[in-house]
């Protein structure tokens, strides 16, 4: 699972943010069965330089996508499952963070020239 930490404020810099893309991502691998992007850099995200505008810009390869910060309808927790080593074989869940906002990229990509 990709983890991207983008601080929304200096008060809580470890808030998680969901990146929502419309469409599909296809790799450049010759093997069509390998659709995993594990360990790969997806692209670069940067923000507008003005203090009143926090418009994100995502660059993937030769494509640029513009997005916006949108609150989630319902916040949700990101959990990590871990099993204990004792004889009880119990399962513990650790909260990694709370997702309250998402960056929505719904427009068609523009070519970077």
UniProtKB/TrEMBL annotation:
GO biological process: DNA replication; mitotic sister chromatid cohesion
Organism superkingdom: Eukaryota
Intracellular or extracellular location(s): Nucleus
Pfam families: Ctf8
Keyword Signal among UniProt keywords: no
Cited InterPro entries: Ctf8
The UniProt record lists the keyword Cell cycle: yes
An example Gene Ontology CC term for this record: Ctf18 RFC-like complex
Name by which UniProt lists this protein: Chromosome transmission fidelity protein 8
Family assignment from sequence similarity: Belongs to the CTF8 family.
GO molecular function: DNA binding
Keywords: Cell cycle, DNA replication, DNA-binding, Nucleus
């Amino acid at each position: 699972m990709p983890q991207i930490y983008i601080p929304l404020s200096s008060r809580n810099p470890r808030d998680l943010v969901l990146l929502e893309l419309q469409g599909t991502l296809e790799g450049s691998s010759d093997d069509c069965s390998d659709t995993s992007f594990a360990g790969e850099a997806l692209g670069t995200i940067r923000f507008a330089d003005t203090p009143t505008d926090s418009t994100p810009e995502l660059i993937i390869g030769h494509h640029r996508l513009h997005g916006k910060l949108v609150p989630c309808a319902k916040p949700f927790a990101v959990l990590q499952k871990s099993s204990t080593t004792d004889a009880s074989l119990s399962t513990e869940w650790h909260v990694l963070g709370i997702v309250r906002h998402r960056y929505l990229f719904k427009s068609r990509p523009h070519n970077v020239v």
